[in-house]
User: What shape does this take?
Amino acid sequence: MPDARAFSFDRVAVVGGVKTPVTPPHTSCAVNLINETLGDLQVHSTDSDNTHYVVISAGYERPFTPQRFTFRHDEVAFWLTAAVSGTVVMIWG
Assistant: This one.
């Protein structure tokens, strides 16, 4: 029988200009990011080169599903950098 997981909701407070690590609550292959800050939100890789994945404008939601890996529980999946302080909602699937 496959291991079925329900959706998980997380809220993360981000500080403007500071990189915030994101760790999933369970192993997952996708996450929806909802930017509730009043500025742009940048998503960065965990690699040493700090690859920039995507920018999410204020008030928008964006699915984030990298093709090459899954997000593992208790490991940093990616980093968030916000233009201004606020809240980001994540829906893990």
In short: The beta strands are 8-14, 19-22, 31-35, 41-44, 52-56, 61-64, 78-82, 86-92. Residues 8-92 form a domain with the Jelly Rolls fold (CATH 2.60.120.220).
